[in-house]
Design goal:
The complex is a heterodimer. Chain A is of the alpha/beta class. Chain A has 5 helices and 6 strands. Chain A has one domain: 3-Layer(aba) Sandwich (Rossmann fold). The chains are: A alpha/beta, B mainly alpha. Chain B: This is Possible ARAC-type regulatory protein.
Amino acid sequence: MNQDYIHIILADDDEDDRLFFTDVFEELKMTTKVDTFNDGVYLMDYLNSEDAIIPNVLFLDLNMPRKTGMECLKEIKANDKFKDMAIAIYSTSASEEDIENTFVYGANIYIKKPDNFKKLKKALSEVVTINWQYHTSGLNKDNFLLRL
Amino acid sequence: MKLFVKFDFNVVCTKILVEKLEEFGIKYAMLGFGEVEVLEKIPSEVYTAFTKALDEYSIEIVENQKSILVQKIKDTIVDMVFNEETINIKTSAYLADQLGHSYGYLSNLFSEVTYTSIENFIILQKIEYTKQLIIEGNLTLTEIAFKLNYSSVAHLSTQFKNTTGITPSAFQRIISKRRDILKK
């Protein structure tokens, strides 16, 4: 019944950001499985496919070509299949209003992309730890809001 | 006459296990290597009868003692936070007393299994309770702070912001906007 690793997906069009991201998870002490997609269309094609494995946490970059993070977010929230998946917006700076809007449209987490590896590691570790608590301690996911 | 039989223990045990799982109406998936994934929550009386039935064949469910104790710690904390009579009691003494282990042992075990500390878990629970009370909308933040035994409303606000990254009022605004969208 217990899944012994945390499954994570990142959708981001920036290759360096994807690389940093996967490197961080290799260094964390938790067992994780990380998949990455280059844009929102690839991501949604995968998530909507029948044999898709729904991740525990999805990290979404806001500015992606073809389909933006916000478009993905709205599509995901409209589908009950994804109700157990936590959504983290992972983005470079945005206005206060844009940040609040991602929460309003159902994001659980907002992370401003940190400018160095150490901070990124700390932020991602915090996200995964808190998400794990929601996952394993029966907390109400509807109230799960976290900004880093 | 003598008969010589040869059997495959793995096949025998798996077959017994499958028969028993079906007999007790448990929805399952066999994962191989002695692992069974249970797809629905088993009522505790069914679980007890099921383990007893397996016991006849000396098949034992291996339970992870550590995870069980961690679950007990969590349950005790949740009870404590959500109960006005116990929220003022010192947690370390209460946990040690309720669970019969030293706090040092419980604390180390908890961090090892959950990747977080008991202290952080308590804060998280209190903030979750605060969120619930904010959404219910019957109490002001000052009243919530008093109810959860915070020294001041500022203390609660700060802890809320430190834990979630947003202020209690932003939380309230976001949740109510979300509701408006759902209504449309």
